[in-house]
Amino acid sequence: MVTYCTLYVAQRLNFFESKPIDMKTVVVFGILNGLSIGFLNLSLGFNSIGFYQMTKLAIIPFTVLVETIFLNKQFSQKIKFSLFLLLVGVGIASVTDLQLNLLGTVLSLLAIVTTCVGQILTNTIQKRLNVSSTQLLYQSAPFQAAILFVTGPMMDQYLTKKNVFAYNYSPIVLGFIILSCVIAVFVNFSTFLVIGKTSPVTYQVLGHLKTCLVLGFGYTLLHDPFTSRNILGILVAILGMVLYSYYSTHENKKKQSGDLLPASQVLLLFLFQLFPRTTSSSSSSFLNQFINQIFDFFKKNPFWRKHQK
Q1: Are 283 and 292 in contact (CB under 8 A)?
Q2: Which sequence ranges are marked TM in the entry (predicted)?
Q3: What pTM, to 2 d.p., does this model score?
């Protein structure tokens, strides 16, 4: 709700222009993102930290699977290999204990599904409806807040047997809550922006970079225990991230250059449009005969095709 209020003020100050989006799409999208946050928190509450980390690691392969099946998106073997290295590295560095239970497993599966679908929709809606990350977040934030406001206190009451509204909030606690809300505004904005400009998989890669940084800062600043296993895992994960960045950039450049026609082909297309070949008697004119000879010359001498590679 703080995110919506912040964006409302920004919209009133003309920092961005509000764009209407289909109400059904916004409602479903907002509720799905709210459920994703809820299931991730419940997964952490009902599972060990190690199993929760495995849940986060499973989001990338599931996202790749969903985009491949339903969106016909192709991932090269090099991209898959770099993601594999990343997941193995983060797993080595962060996964310590794996304690399984039925309820925790179900919650983890629901968290994976809702998070993957929500992030894919974040990217798809922005591109297909031609809306910015700010416009989409502004429209969907109230519904995301509503589902959390309704279900959050109920789940707290059920799990802790305490009423969240009956808690005695001290000034220090209120200060941290306000700080958390301010940080959440920037997190929500950056999440929608990164997913919209890149892809859900790239956003997850950045998320695992955050995990490596947390481990590193924990050792540097807080002097947390740091073993050779953590170092090995972080190095492998960083290698996977570097390879993913390199292969993604290379393939995007290759795709963009492949969409451009060579100059010789553009010239031919222009001539075809300017002087179309016909089978009528008018084609016997000197000009048309000359143009036809040019066409035949290029067809018989396809040396210019080498430049397409």
Answers
A1: yes
A2: 26-44, 50-71, 83-100, 106-124, 167-189, 228-247
A3: 0.79
